[in-house]
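Weekly puzzle thread! Below is a chain. First person to post its structure in token form gets bragging rights.
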Amino acid sequence: MNREDIIRMAREACDQAPREDWNSTAWVFGDETLERFSALVAAAEREECAKVCEDIPLPKDSKALTHGPTIERCAAAIRARGQL
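Winning reply:
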């Protein structure tokens, strides 16, 4: 996740236009907006973590048969944390 991703998620979560000040842009976040924003950030982070699991190279020996399902379960468990 980079700065642009965070700003995009903040804009997505915010239900009003930013306040234009003389030297900056200010976003006003109430409780509900902050909850939406944190949920978006957490979901994006979970997905990135799950993809890291899925990108783990499998060994070329017989352990690939047990490692593959373990990696898939690990990625699924990370994604499922958002459904608690």
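Puzzle host: Confirmed. Bonus trivia for everyone else. DSSP finds three helices and two strands in the chain.
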